[in-house]
Structure formats: C-alpha cells, structure tokens
Amino acid sequence: MRLRGIILAVMGIILGLVVGMSWAQEAEQAQVQLPTKVVRLHQVKAGENLHLISAYYYGDARQWKKIWNFNKKEIRNPNIIRVGQIIKVEVEPGWKPKFDLDQYLGQSQQKGAGTTEVKKPTVIREKEEVRPSITPRPKEEAGAPTTESPPEETPPEETSAPKEI
C-alpha cells in the first residue's frame, strides 16, 4: 500500500511538470505573436510632403519611399499629395513622435507670412579699373602696306614617279 502511494505521488509530480511545461510554451508563443508593425493613419495638412512625413514617423526624411510604396494605390506621383488625403504609415508599436509636426508647420508658415524686406547686397569692392596686360596694336589704315611680309609659299613636293638612279 505504501508503495502504491509513492508511485501515485511520483506520477502526480511528473504530470504536473508536463502540464506546467506545456503551459509555459503556450505563454511564450503568445508573446512572440505580437505585431511587429502598427499601421497609423495620417491626414495630410498644408505644407506637408512625403519627406517631412517620413522624417516625422521614421526620423529620416530619406525613407519617404517606404510611405510611397505602402500607399501606391492612393499616391500615384510621390511629389504630389493633397491636403486632407489619408496616408497609411507603418511604425513600431509604442511609437512616439520626436517633434510636434503641427508646431513645426506653424513656425515655417509664420516665417514665410511676415513682410519681406529686400536687402541691398553688401558692396565688398568699388569699381576697379582693369588695365590690359598687352597693349593693342594701332589699327592699320586701309590700303597702307604692312610692315610684315606675307609668308612665302613653298611648292608642294612631287610625288608622281620615283626617280631612277
């Protein structure tokens, strides 16, 4: 009787370990199946382009092609996006912006909205007299003989028949 009790106790422990191990494996699988990317919807505002949007979401303006490839059905030309258009952007779970996009756009619009004064360029030098390093020859009068003689013409060499010796 005592032997049976020991065998049942050992079997219970083994069964408990097997059930516990299978439960741990299921818990691990549940953690692995978390989504690797989250899709966010972005509504385009005045002054935005794909470079600015990619800098906002990815921290790198050169990754604008990721957004364009993900939205090719909605964006035919990456240089033209419309105000109010909804764009899908893939980001990491728990993504937080590095800067406030609305504040950035407001600052850039305020800079362009002010009155613009045209500044005169700063003069570094006044007019400078340029003197030629070579003095020009005096113009020759029409019909007057020149001091130089025309180049002599040399007769062309004869190449007809070879000379016999």
Task: Kindly summarize this structure in a few lines.
The chain has 165 residues and is mainly alpha-helical. It has 4 helices and 2 strands, in the order αβααβα. A two-stranded antiparallel sheet has the order 1-2.
How would you sum up this structure, described in words?
This protein is mainly alpha-helical and 165 residues long. The chain has a domain of 63 residues: Roll (Membrane-bound Lytic Murein Transglycosylase D, Chain A), CATH 3.10.350. It has a two-stranded antiparallel sheet. The longest helix is centred in the N-terminal third of the chain and has 31 residues. The radius of gyration is 44 Å and the shape is elongated.
CATH class descriptor name of the domain at 38-100: Alpha Beta
Instruction: Measure the end-to-end span.
Output: 142 Å
β-strand number: 2
How many DSSP H or I helices? Answer: 4
Task: Spell out the helices and strands N to C.
Answer: HEHHEH
- Spatial strand sequence of the major β-sheet: 1-2
Top keywords for this entry?
165 residues; mainly alpha; 4 helices; 2 strands; elongated
Task: Please outline the helices and strands.
Elements: H1 2-32, E1 38-43, H2 50-58, H3 64-70, E2 86-91, H4 101-113
Helix pairs in contact: 2-3
